[in-house]
User: Which sequence fits this backbone?
């Protein structure tokens, strides 16, 4: 579904979504509620859209929309004028939040047309304030990644290995902005 606004409506919708942040907004078409996303922040770009791909659920779309809103709000990167599609190889569904950071970095990689390093592993849960939270089994994930040839990692500070891993350059970050800084260092 795509919504395009006039300049006046853009301002009004931005004010509305700022006021109701954290609450649902019902979208009605011909008197039927077609969607009721939770508004995560002001939407000021002139249009809004969420497209469910093959096999995607409303929850998947809401989660992606939330991460894109956090990226805009806390990193100043708006993808509101882009079509964003996210898919996992083989149609696997990822239910755990540890993939949040990897998803956003993959989306940015595509948007910027810059390939992520092949030997990079990324994990972490993204919160509404742009913080990157630790995930369960962080140490095991890193040890397993080393076995599969990964030599670099961007992970939540809460999952930093103690002691440091000899076979991997681990960058422990606290925010999405810090993750972007680490990626830009290697660019």
Assistant:
């Amino acid at each position: 579904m795509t919504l395009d606004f006039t300049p006046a409506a853009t301002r009004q919708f931005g004010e509305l979504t700022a006021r109701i942040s954290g609450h649902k907004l019902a979208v009605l078409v011909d008197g039927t509620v077609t969607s009721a996303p939770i508004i995560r922040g002001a939407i000021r770009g002139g249009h809004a859209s969420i497209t469910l791909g093959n096999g995607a659920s409303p929850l998947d779309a809401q989660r992606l929309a939330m991460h894109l809103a956090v990226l805009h709000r806390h990193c100043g990167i708006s993808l509101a004028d882009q079509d964003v599609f996210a898919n996992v190889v083989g149609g696997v569904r990822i239910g755990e939040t540890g993939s949040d950071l990897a998803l956003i970095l993959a989306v940015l990689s595509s948007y910027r047309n810059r390939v992520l390093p092949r030997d990079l592993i990324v994990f972490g849960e993204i919160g509404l304030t742009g913080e990157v939270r630790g995930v369960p089994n962080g140490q095991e994930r890193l040890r397993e990644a080393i076995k599969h040839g990964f030599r670099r990692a961007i992970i939540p500070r809460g999952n930093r290995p103690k002691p440091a891993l000899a076979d991997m350059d681990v960058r422990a970050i606290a925010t999405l902005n810090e993750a972007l800084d680490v990626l830009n260092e290697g660019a």
Notes: The chain has two domains: 2-75, 97-185. The longest helix spans residues 58-75. The chain has a mean pLDDT of 82. Residues 2-75 form a domain with the Gyrase A; domain 2 fold (CATH 3.30.1360.200).
